[in-house]
Write a structure and sequence with these properties.
By secondary structure, the protein is mainly beta. Helices cover 0% and strands 51% of the residues. Strands 2, 4, 5, 6, 9, 12 and 13 form a 7-stranded mixed sheet that branches. Strands 1-3-8-7 form a 4-stranded antiparallel sheet, with no helix packed on it. The protein has a two-stranded antiparallel sheet with strand order 10-11.
């Protein structure tokens, strides 16, 4: 049984940083594509960053630079370092796993439909 458990969310002021972690069980992370998604109130879930076990990444344009996704194949964990946070980064952040990596226009997919397993989410609130 695959389980993904996010941690590290919280409330910060604009310009602050948070580090999210995703602990996995029931899967070997190096055999999966992993990703972070978020959902703001009243909006659809959107892809933030995705990564392969080999370290190939793709980011939503608005988070390139301040956000860094990383994977620890030995510990079966996925992290998201978020710096220079903005109020528009507020939302519930989800960890997700896909048995196969889907490419869209030559880049790793940021589409939620391409991911099979999901965590429960962790709230990130950025105040101005």
């Amino acid at each position: 049984q695959v389980q993904l458990v996010e941690s590290g969310g919280g409330s910060v002021q604009a310009g602050g940083s948070l580090r999210l972690s995703c602990a996995t069980s029931g899967l070997t992370i190096r055999r999966y594509c992993m990703g972070w998604f978020r959902q703001a109130p009243g909006k659809e879930r959107e892809g933030v960053a995705t990564i392969t076990s080999g370290g190939v990444t793709n980011y939503k344009d608005s988070v390139k630079g301040p956000f860094t996704i990383s994977i620890d194949n030995a510990e079966n964990t996925l992290d998201l370092q978020m710096n220079s946070l903005k109020p528009e980064d507020t939302g519930v952040y989800y960890c997700a796993a896909a048995p196969t990596c889907t490419m869209v226009a030559g880049r790793l997919s940021l589409t939620s439909q391409h991911f099979r397993y999901w965590g429960q989410g962790t709230q990130v609130t950025v105040s101005s």
